[in-house]
Specification:
- It is a single chain.
- By secondary structure, the chain is an alpha/beta fold.
- It has two domains: 79 residues, no CATH class; 231 residues, Alpha-Beta Barrel (TIM Barrel), CATH 3.20.20.70.
- It is built from ten helices and 13 strands.
- Helix 8 links the parallel strand 12 and strand 13.
- Helix 3 packs parallel to helix 4, helix 4 runs parallel beside helix 5 and helix 8 packs parallel to helix 9.
- The structure holds iron/sulfur cluster.
Protein backbone atom coordinates (compact mmCIF):
# COMPACT_ATOMS: atom_id res chain seq x y z
CA UNK A 1 0.00 0.00 0.00
CA UNK A 2 1.34 3.43 -0.83
CA UNK A 3 0.10 6.68 0.65
CA UNK A 4 -2.20 7.31 -2.32
CA UNK A 5 -4.06 4.04 -1.72
CA UNK A 6 -4.15 4.68 2.03
CA UNK A 7 -5.60 8.15 1.37
CA UNK A 8 -8.31 6.57 -0.78
CA UNK A 9 -9.18 4.02 1.91
CA UNK A 10 -9.17 6.68 4.63
CA UNK A 11 -11.38 8.98 2.64
CA UNK A 12 -14.01 6.22 2.57
CA UNK A 13 -13.30 5.09 6.12
CA UNK A 14 -15.56 2.02 6.02
CA UNK A 15 -15.41 -1.52 4.67
CA UNK A 16 -17.65 -4.57 4.32
CA UNK A 17 -15.69 -7.53 5.66
CA UNK A 18 -16.13 -11.22 4.83
CA UNK A 19 -17.56 -12.83 7.98
CA UNK A 20 -14.69 -15.30 8.51
CA UNK A 21 -12.14 -12.46 8.62
CA UNK A 22 -13.83 -10.53 11.36
CA UNK A 23 -12.12 -10.53 14.72
CA UNK A 24 -14.33 -11.41 17.71
CA UNK A 25 -17.05 -8.76 18.08
CA UNK A 26 -15.21 -5.79 19.40
CA UNK A 27 -16.30 -2.19 19.36
CA UNK A 28 -14.07 0.78 19.87
CA UNK A 29 -14.27 2.35 23.31
CA UNK A 30 -11.84 5.14 22.49
CA UNK A 31 -12.52 8.59 21.14
CA UNK A 32 -14.94 9.82 18.53
CA UNK A 33 -15.27 6.39 16.89
CA UNK A 34 -16.55 4.88 20.12
CA UNK A 35 -19.15 2.16 19.70
CA UNK A 36 -18.17 1.19 16.15
CA UNK A 37 -16.65 -2.12 15.08
CA UNK A 38 -13.32 -1.66 13.32
CA UNK A 39 -10.69 -3.67 11.51
CA UNK A 40 -6.98 -2.98 11.07
CA UNK A 41 -5.44 -3.70 7.69
CA UNK A 42 -1.71 -3.66 7.02
CA UNK A 43 0.12 -3.75 3.72
CA UNK A 44 3.86 -3.16 3.52
CA UNK A 45 4.70 -0.65 6.20
CA UNK A 46 1.34 1.11 6.19
CA UNK A 47 -1.66 0.46 8.40
CA UNK A 48 -5.24 1.64 8.11
CA UNK A 49 -8.17 1.33 10.46
CA UNK A 50 -11.60 1.03 8.86
CA UNK A 51 -15.07 0.90 10.34
CA UNK A 52 -16.90 -2.31 9.50
CA UNK A 53 -20.26 -1.79 7.83
CA UNK A 54 -22.32 -3.60 5.20
CA UNK A 55 -23.01 -0.54 3.08
CA UNK A 56 -19.43 0.37 2.13
CA UNK A 57 -18.09 0.59 -1.45
CA UNK A 58 -15.06 -1.37 -0.19
CA UNK A 59 -15.04 -5.11 0.51
CA UNK A 60 -12.41 -7.21 2.22
CA UNK A 61 -12.11 -10.83 1.12
CA UNK A 62 -9.71 -13.70 1.75
CA UNK A 63 -7.13 -14.55 -0.90
CA UNK A 64 -4.73 -17.43 -0.16
CA UNK A 65 -2.92 -16.46 3.05
CA UNK A 66 -3.73 -12.82 2.65
CA UNK A 67 -6.72 -10.56 2.30
CA UNK A 68 -7.54 -8.14 -0.48
CA UNK A 69 -9.55 -4.97 -0.55
CA UNK A 70 -11.85 -4.76 -3.54
CA UNK A 71 -13.73 -1.81 -5.04
CA UNK A 72 -16.13 -2.19 -7.97
CA UNK A 73 -14.77 -5.71 -8.64
CA UNK A 74 -11.21 -4.44 -8.83
CA UNK A 75 -8.53 -5.44 -6.34
CA UNK A 76 -7.03 -2.30 -4.84
CA UNK A 77 -4.51 -3.68 -2.38
CA UNK A 78 -3.39 -6.90 -0.70
CA UNK A 79 -2.33 -7.25 2.92
CA UNK A 80 -3.16 -8.76 6.28
CA UNK A 81 -5.68 -8.22 9.07
CA UNK A 82 -3.83 -7.12 12.17
CA UNK A 83 -4.49 -8.45 15.62
CA UNK A 84 -5.62 -5.89 18.15
CA UNK A 85 -4.07 -5.89 21.62
CA UNK A 86 -6.56 -3.51 23.24
CA UNK A 87 -8.21 -1.02 20.87
CA UNK A 88 -5.26 -1.02 18.47
CA UNK A 89 -2.34 -3.18 17.32
CA UNK A 90 0.87 -3.00 19.40
CA UNK A 91 -0.68 -0.83 22.12
CA UNK A 92 -2.88 -1.34 25.12
CA UNK A 93 -5.08 1.69 24.51
CA UNK A 94 -7.73 2.16 27.18
CA UNK A 95 -10.54 4.68 27.66
CA UNK A 96 -10.93 5.41 31.36
CA UNK A 97 -14.15 7.49 31.56
CA UNK A 98 -16.51 6.55 28.74
CA UNK A 99 -18.59 9.66 29.36
CA UNK A 100 -18.11 13.41 29.12
CA UNK A 101 -19.63 16.57 30.58
CA UNK A 102 -18.66 18.43 27.40
CA UNK A 103 -20.75 17.90 24.31
CA UNK A 104 -18.59 18.40 21.23
CA UNK A 105 -20.71 17.64 18.17
CA UNK A 106 -18.15 15.38 16.49
CA UNK A 107 -17.79 13.02 19.46
CA UNK A 108 -20.03 10.11 20.47
CA UNK A 109 -18.56 9.75 23.98
CA UNK A 110 -21.02 12.22 25.64
CA UNK A 111 -23.93 10.36 24.04
CA UNK A 112 -22.87 6.97 25.34
CA UNK A 113 -22.91 7.77 29.08
CA UNK A 114 -20.66 4.75 29.57
CA UNK A 115 -18.81 3.49 32.61
CA UNK A 116 -15.78 4.82 34.43
CA UNK A 117 -13.16 2.07 34.58
CA UNK A 118 -11.59 1.56 37.96
CA UNK A 119 -7.85 1.31 38.50
CA UNK A 120 -8.23 -2.43 39.11
CA UNK A 121 -10.13 -2.95 35.86
CA UNK A 122 -7.37 -1.16 33.98
CA UNK A 123 -4.66 -3.14 35.75
CA UNK A 124 -6.47 -6.35 34.74
CA UNK A 125 -6.40 -5.35 31.04
CA UNK A 126 -2.71 -4.44 31.23
CA UNK A 127 -1.83 -7.58 33.18
CA UNK A 128 -3.57 -9.75 30.55
CA UNK A 129 -1.54 -8.08 27.75
CA UNK A 130 1.63 -8.66 29.77
CA UNK A 131 0.83 -12.36 30.27
CA UNK A 132 0.29 -12.70 26.50
CA UNK A 133 3.66 -11.03 25.81
CA UNK A 134 1.90 -8.10 24.12
CA UNK A 135 2.64 -5.26 26.50
CA UNK A 136 4.85 -2.76 24.67
CA UNK A 137 3.02 0.53 25.06
CA UNK A 138 0.16 1.83 27.20
CA UNK A 139 -2.03 4.67 25.96
CA UNK A 140 -4.86 6.14 27.96
CA UNK A 141 -7.68 8.43 26.99
CA UNK A 142 -10.67 9.66 28.90
CA UNK A 143 -13.79 11.76 28.64
CA UNK A 144 -14.53 14.12 31.52
CA UNK A 145 -16.78 12.50 34.11
CA UNK A 146 -16.91 15.39 36.61
CA UNK A 147 -14.43 18.15 35.71
CA UNK A 148 -11.13 18.41 33.79
CA UNK A 149 -9.11 18.72 37.02
CA UNK A 150 -10.88 15.78 38.65
CA UNK A 151 -10.24 13.71 35.52
CA UNK A 152 -6.53 14.56 35.54
CA UNK A 153 -6.37 13.35 39.17
CA UNK A 154 -8.04 10.09 38.12
CA UNK A 155 -5.57 9.62 35.26
CA UNK A 156 -2.58 10.48 37.48
CA UNK A 157 -3.67 7.87 40.01
CA UNK A 158 -3.93 5.23 37.29
CA UNK A 159 -0.63 6.18 35.66
CA UNK A 160 1.15 5.84 39.02
CA UNK A 161 -0.18 2.27 39.23
CA UNK A 162 0.97 1.54 35.65
CA UNK A 163 4.42 3.17 35.80
CA UNK A 164 6.10 0.08 37.36
CA UNK A 165 5.42 -1.86 34.12
CA UNK A 166 8.23 0.22 32.62
CA UNK A 167 6.69 0.76 29.16
CA UNK A 168 6.03 4.14 27.49
CA UNK A 169 2.74 5.67 28.60
CA UNK A 170 0.79 8.12 26.44
CA UNK A 171 -2.17 10.14 27.66
CA UNK A 172 -4.79 11.89 25.49
CA UNK A 173 -7.09 14.00 27.64
CA UNK A 174 -8.54 17.44 28.05
CA UNK A 175 -5.96 19.50 29.95
CA UNK A 176 -6.51 20.82 33.46
CA UNK A 177 -4.60 23.13 35.76
CA UNK A 178 -0.90 22.08 35.83
CA UNK A 179 -1.91 18.84 34.14
CA UNK A 180 1.37 18.41 32.26
CA UNK A 181 3.49 18.63 35.40
CA UNK A 182 1.16 16.24 37.27
CA UNK A 183 1.13 13.72 34.40
CA UNK A 184 4.89 13.89 33.85
CA UNK A 185 5.60 13.38 37.57
CA UNK A 186 3.28 10.36 37.57
CA UNK A 187 5.28 8.69 34.77
CA UNK A 188 3.68 9.78 31.49
CA UNK A 189 5.93 9.79 28.39
CA UNK A 190 3.80 11.74 25.90
CA UNK A 191 0.59 13.78 25.98
CA UNK A 192 -2.07 14.79 23.52
CA UNK A 193 -4.39 17.72 24.19
CA UNK A 194 -6.61 18.08 21.15
CA UNK A 195 -7.65 21.45 19.79
CA UNK A 196 -9.94 19.57 17.32
CA UNK A 197 -10.04 22.65 15.06
CA UNK A 198 -7.93 25.77 14.73
CA UNK A 199 -10.84 27.78 13.36
CA UNK A 200 -12.23 29.73 16.38
CA UNK A 201 -15.70 30.09 14.83
CA UNK A 202 -15.96 26.35 14.16
CA UNK A 203 -14.66 25.63 17.67
CA UNK A 204 -17.39 27.83 19.16
CA UNK A 205 -20.03 26.17 17.01
CA UNK A 206 -19.10 22.51 17.55
CA UNK A 207 -18.13 22.81 21.23
CA UNK A 208 -20.73 25.40 22.23
CA UNK A 209 -22.30 25.04 25.65
CA UNK A 210 -19.18 23.46 27.08
CA UNK A 211 -18.32 25.91 29.86
CA UNK A 212 -14.60 26.48 30.35
CA UNK A 213 -13.78 24.58 27.16
CA UNK A 214 -11.87 27.15 25.17
CA UNK A 215 -9.35 27.01 22.37
CA UNK A 216 -7.18 29.52 24.25
CA UNK A 217 -6.89 27.27 27.29
CA UNK A 218 -6.00 24.22 25.19
CA UNK A 219 -3.32 26.18 23.32
CA UNK A 220 -1.89 27.56 26.54
CA UNK A 221 -1.83 24.02 27.97
CA UNK A 222 -0.05 22.72 24.85
CA UNK A 223 2.62 25.39 25.28
CA UNK A 224 3.16 24.28 28.88
CA UNK A 225 3.17 20.63 27.79
CA UNK A 226 6.12 21.20 25.44
CA UNK A 227 8.03 22.88 28.29
CA UNK A 228 7.40 19.84 30.49
CA UNK A 229 7.60 16.92 28.02
CA UNK A 230 9.90 18.38 25.36
CA UNK A 231 9.93 18.32 21.60
CA UNK A 232 8.22 15.44 19.74
CA UNK A 233 6.37 14.41 22.89
CA UNK A 234 3.25 16.56 22.52
CA UNK A 235 0.52 16.24 19.90
CA UNK A 236 -2.93 17.62 19.14
CA UNK A 237 -5.73 16.40 16.88
CA UNK A 238 -7.16 18.67 14.20
CA UNK A 239 -10.34 17.21 12.72
CA UNK A 240 -10.59 17.53 8.94
CA UNK A 241 -14.09 17.91 7.56
CA UNK A 242 -15.85 20.36 9.87
CA UNK A 243 -15.90 23.13 7.26
CA UNK A 244 -12.40 24.52 7.83
CA UNK A 245 -10.36 25.78 4.86
CA UNK A 246 -7.01 24.29 3.85
CA UNK A 247 -5.42 27.63 4.65
CA UNK A 248 -6.83 27.49 8.18
CA UNK A 249 -5.37 23.98 8.60
CA UNK A 250 -1.99 25.16 7.29
CA UNK A 251 -1.88 28.12 9.66
CA UNK A 252 -3.01 25.90 12.54
CA UNK A 253 -0.39 23.19 11.88
CA UNK A 254 2.28 25.89 11.60
CA UNK A 255 1.14 27.61 14.80
CA UNK A 256 1.26 24.32 16.72
CA UNK A 257 4.58 23.20 15.20
CA UNK A 258 6.18 26.52 16.02
CA UNK A 259 5.51 25.84 19.69
CA UNK A 260 6.75 22.23 19.34
CA UNK A 261 3.41 20.44 18.97
CA UNK A 262 2.76 17.83 16.25
CA UNK A 263 -0.70 18.11 14.68
CA UNK A 264 -2.56 14.88 13.93
CA UNK A 265 -4.92 15.49 10.99
CA UNK A 266 -7.95 13.31 11.65
CA UNK A 267 -10.59 12.74 8.95
CA UNK A 268 -13.96 13.27 10.58
CA UNK A 269 -15.98 10.18 11.54
CA UNK A 270 -19.68 10.82 11.59
CA UNK A 271 -21.18 8.58 14.25
CA UNK A 272 -24.83 7.53 13.79
CA UNK A 273 -25.39 9.23 17.17
CA UNK A 274 -24.29 12.57 15.69
CA UNK A 275 -25.73 12.48 12.17
CA UNK A 276 -28.20 15.28 12.81
CA UNK A 277 -25.67 17.68 14.34
CA UNK A 278 -23.03 17.04 11.69
CA UNK A 279 -25.17 17.55 8.62
CA UNK A 280 -22.61 19.89 7.00
CA UNK A 281 -19.53 17.82 7.87
CA UNK A 282 -17.75 16.16 4.95
CA UNK A 283 -15.12 13.46 5.18
CA UNK A 284 -12.10 14.66 3.16
CA UNK A 285 -11.34 13.10 -0.22
CA UNK A 286 -7.97 11.47 -0.99
CA UNK A 287 -6.57 14.51 -2.82
CA UNK A 288 -7.26 16.80 0.12
CA UNK A 289 -5.76 14.32 2.58
CA UNK A 290 -2.60 13.98 0.49
CA UNK A 291 -2.29 17.73 0.06
CA UNK A 292 -2.73 18.48 3.78
CA UNK A 293 -0.38 15.69 4.81
CA UNK A 294 2.37 16.82 2.43
CA UNK A 295 1.94 20.33 3.77
CA UNK A 296 2.15 19.08 7.36
CA UNK A 297 5.31 17.10 6.59
CA UNK A 298 6.99 20.23 5.23
CA UNK A 299 5.95 22.30 8.24
CA UNK A 300 7.15 19.68 10.73
CA UNK A 301 10.51 19.47 8.94
CA UNK A 302 10.82 23.26 9.05
CA UNK A 303 10.53 23.17 12.86
CA UNK A 304 12.62 20.01 13.33
CA UNK A 305 9.71 17.82 14.46
CA UNK A 306 9.21 14.15 13.55
CA UNK A 307 6.24 11.81 14.15
CA UNK A 308 8.74 8.92 13.92
CA UNK A 309 9.94 9.82 17.41
CA UNK A 310 6.49 9.18 18.86
CA UNK A 311 6.17 6.05 20.95
CA UNK A 312 2.51 6.09 21.94
CA UNK A 313 -1.05 6.88 20.81
CA UNK A 314 -2.04 7.84 17.28
CA UNK A 315 1.31 9.02 15.91
CA UNK A 316 2.77 5.62 16.76
CA UNK A 317 -0.32 3.68 15.59
CA UNK A 318 -1.10 5.66 12.39
CA UNK A 319 -4.30 3.66 11.72
CA UNK A 320 -6.75 6.54 11.44
CA UNK A 321 -4.63 9.18 9.72
CA UNK A 322 -2.33 9.74 6.79
CA UNK A 323 0.52 10.36 9.24
CA UNK A 324 3.42 12.25 7.60
S1 LIG B 1 -4.75 6.10 15.15
FE1 LIG B 1 -5.29 6.56 17.26
S2 LIG B 1 -7.55 6.46 17.39
FE2 LIG B 1 -6.89 5.48 15.47
S3 LIG B 1 -6.75 3.32 16.05
FE3 LIG B 1 -4.72 4.17 16.24
S4 LIG B 1 -4.55 4.77 18.37
FE4 LIG B 1 -6.74 4.47 17.95
Amino acid sequence: MDERIKAELLSIGTIDVEESLLPPPRTSTAGPGMGLQCIFFKSGSLRVRLEVTKDSPLTMVRKNNHVVIVRENQEIVEGIVEEVVAHCPDQVYITISERCIYNCQFCSVPKSKGKIKTRDEILTIVEKAKKNGKLKVISLTSGIAVSPDDEIDRVVDIVKALAPYGVPIGVAVHPGKDSSRKLKDAGVTEVKYSVETMDPDIFDRVCRGSKGHTLEFILESLREAVEVFGKNRVSSNIIIGLGETDDCVRKGVDYLAKMGVIAVLRPISISPLRKEELKTAVRPGPERLLKLTTMTREILEKYGLSPRESQTMCLACTGCDLTP
